[in-house]
Specification:
This protein is α+β, with helices and mostly antiparallel strands. Among the domains are: 65-255, Biosynthetic peptidoglycan transglycosylase-like (Penicillin binding protein transpeptidase fold, Orthogonal Bundle), CATH 1.10.3810.10; 352-451, DD-peptidase/beta-lactamase superfamily (Beta-lactamase, 3-Layer(aba) Sandwich), CATH 3.40.710.10. The chain contains 20 helices and 16 strands. The strands form 5 sheets. The chain has a 5-stranded mixed beta sheet with strand order 2-1-3-11-12. Strand 1 and strand 2 form a beta hairpin. It is elongated.
């Protein structure tokens, strides 16, 4: 009986091992056959190539779209294809995913040299590794890579595999795919690259960090020349073209006079808005997008962000041309090159005292005068007992004086008097309360509820535009490759305030800057209309201000909602610093 059990156990072990191995390889086959390239995106993709320019026609960004895997009409430029095949996988069209001849040659070369001099991975193996695996140096990963390569060759044709490779290969400096590398290193579309530039990109493939032209341009050029020589020996280019390419001087993107804007968040926002504009139009392959951004202002604003307190403290800035709604500046972060969060549109934070302009507008609409008195004394509404900052109370005080001192009691009294629903409806007409719907609580009157920097800045922009609100717009026009018009911004405004009421609101805002809590934004000899705002614990520091036809909002705070040791006066001062730089106004330090 014991022997029978032992024999059964001995038989079960190989069955279990075989089942496990079978399941493992079946899962690999299933995943490879059901490959969804969209799940392997390393960055935002568009269906079109594009050039984005500033309002004064300076190029902000330029990018070729990735190659379409299923579209046989979307061809890889021959010179690009030949460069990578010549340098990475000469027998690409002759093997079935695994090139035993290349592997044998690589092993022999590595043994002879005493170190890993040559790799034996095919382009197909590299695709398998990029899309499915990691770079671990172990036998298990290599077995998976070989097996998946065979499946990929079954699933895709050679052209599709090469597209997968060129779309996804990492070429350093944050560039995934040759389209991004073309932009990062040369500021060009793929079609604009020279043979020399293509060869340099192909030379990055084995080790992007080592051969990066930004780190070691001599080594990058040496490797470029190897690629060019290889292409000549393989018969892809003539001797004349070889010599010309080797002599060509490398002009990297940072060496060009018209540097691109290094802000992926802003570029992505422009592209998202572009997608909305062309959603129901033709399937364009190339777009010329003229943005509303003033490149010079944008760069000045970005440089000012570094003055915003401790390293971890974040910063956002937005400037809107009041009579058109055009966004002239949008700083999404202190460091947009590595940050992936747009604090101008995605961050919903308590508005603090910047919201108080709404209940004051409601009081004026209801017939109150700036000289009318309200009680600024400690009071409770049921269980809600708000306090003024520093618990400073002024007794019977006019509307204009209460706004100047940023009383908390008066705007709540106004709200209780004229009704929370009226306040909410008025806020909605200013474009507030849609990202985070307002609820009927008294604390709403002093900005306890949140919205984003875009909406609150646009609300103040309406006051700077005689009570007419515009839809904020970051695109001026979109054209095809041949500059045929596709979409053009047409400014449409909506009147939300009577001009007399609006003038009184501007008096409140001017008083706040001249004599009140917003004094840090004051510039001698200039009329400025603005308001600071602070949430509990100084977690959010705001200043929204207008000068001439420009309204600019600034927010400072920690992403994790931590308390700050700064004040809203810091936001007001940074506003003044920005305005003084773009208008070239000297200010005292």
């Amino acid at each position: 009986m014991q022997k029978i059990k032992f024999k059964s156990f001995v038989l079960i072990i190989p069955i279990l091992i075989f089942s496990g191995i079978s399941f493992y390889f079946f899962s690999l086959i299933f995943s490879a056959l059901n490959l969804d390239v969209s799940k392997n995106k390393k960055s935002r993709e568009t269906k079109y190539s594009y050039v984005i320019s500033s309002s004064d026609n300076k190029i902000l960004s330029k990018l070729s779209h990735k190659f379409e895997i299923e579209n046989s009409q979307n061809q890889i430029p021959p010179i690009l294809k030949n460069a990578f095949i010549s340098s990475e996988d000469k027998r690409f069209y002759k093997h079935n995913g695994i090139d035993l001849k290349s592997i044998s040659r690589a092993i022999f070369q590595n043994i002879r040299s005493g170190y890993v001099k040559e790799g034996g991975s095919t382009i197909t193996q590299q695709v398998a590794r990029i899309l499915f695996l990691n770079n671990d140096l172990n036998i298990q990963r290599k077995i998976k890579e070989v097996f998946l390569s065979l499946i990929l060759e079954f699933r895709y044709n050679k052209s599709q595999i090469l597209k997968l490779y060129l779309n996804n290969i990492y070429l350093g400096s944050g560039a995934y795919g040759v389209n991004e590398a073309s932009q990062v290193y040369f500021g060009k579309l793929i079609e604009e690259l020279t043979l020399s530039e293509i060869a340099l990109l192909a030379g990055l493939a084995p080790a992007p960090s080592i051969y990066s032209p930004y780190q070691n341009v001599e080594l990058a050029i040496k490797n470029r020349n190897k690629v060019i020589e290889s292409m000549y020996l393989d018969g892809y280019i003539s001797l004349a073209n070889k010599n010309k390419a080797i002599k060509e001087r490398i002009n990297l993107n940072y060496q060009t006079a018209d540097n691109f804007l290094d802000d992926k968040l802003l570029i992505n926002f422009i592209l998202e808005e572009t997608d909305k504009r062309i959603e129901n139009k033709n399937d364009y392959k190339f777009l010329r997008i003229k943005s509303t951004i003033n490149k010079d202002w944008q760069e000045k604003a970005q440089s000012i962000s570094r003055y915003a307190g401790p390293k971890e403290l974040e910063f956002a800035l937005l400037s809107i041309e009041s009579n058109t709604g055009k966004i002239r500046t949008m700083v999404t972060s202190k460091n947009p090159t590595i940050n992936e969060y747009n604090r101008v549109i995605s961050s919903i934070r308590p508005l603090g005292s910047t919201f108080k302009i709404i209940p004051y507008a409601a009081a004026l609409i209801e017939g109150k005068k700036l000289s009318d008195k309200f009680e600024d004394l400690p009071i409770c509404w049921e269980s809600y007992c708000p306090k003024n900052f520093s618990e400073d109370y002024r007794g019977s005080i006019s509307l204009i004086e209460s706004f100047k001192s940023s009383s908390n009691i008066v705007p709540i009294s106004i709200t209780k008097k004229f009704g929370l629903k009226n306040i909410i409806n008025l806020a909605n007409s200013f474009g507030l309360g849609y990202k985070q719907e307002f609820e009927e609580f008294p604390s709403l009157a002093i900005g306890a509820y949140g919205d984003n920097l875009l909406n609150i800045t646009n609300a103040y922009s309406a006051i700077n535009n005689n009570g007419k609100i515009q839809s904020p717009e970051i695109i001026e026009k979109i054209e095809s490759f041949k500059k045929q018009p596709i979409w053009e911004n047409k400014s449409i405004s909506k009147k939300i305030l009577d001009i007399k009421i609006n003038k009184k609101l501007n008096k409140l805002l001017e008083k706040s800057v001249k004599e009140g809590t917003s004094k840090a934004a004051s510039i001698k000899g200039k009329k400025i209309y603005g308001k600071t705002g602070t949430s509990d614990g100084n977690k959010d520091l705001w200043f929204i201000g207008s000068i001439d036809n420009l309204t600019t909002g600034i927010w400072i705070g920690y992403d994790d909602n931590k308390e700050s040791e700064l004040s809203s006066g810091n936001a007001a001062y940074l506003w003044k610093k920005f305005i003084s730089e773009i208008y070239k106004i000297p200010i005292k330090k």
